[in-house]
Amino acid sequence: MAINLQEVCNILERQTCPIHNKKPTAKVNGNKIEINACCNKFKKELEEIMGNEISKQTDDNLDNILDISR
Ligand SMILES: [Zn+2]
Asked: Distance from the CA of 40 to the center of ligand 1, in angstroms?
């Protein structure tokens, strides 16, 4: 199952911290994503977005697999 981590990074880097008005950096490191954010609160939010994105991509992949096997 291929998850496009680079795309998840791009989504994360489009976010802005609501408190500090700063953008985070996110980069792919192996099969993980490293997030650098201005504060822990924002980092937590980003991790949540990351989790949602990955499960969304997993669902999409699952749909594709089911389509092929049908
Ligand atoms: Zn912040």
From this structure: 7
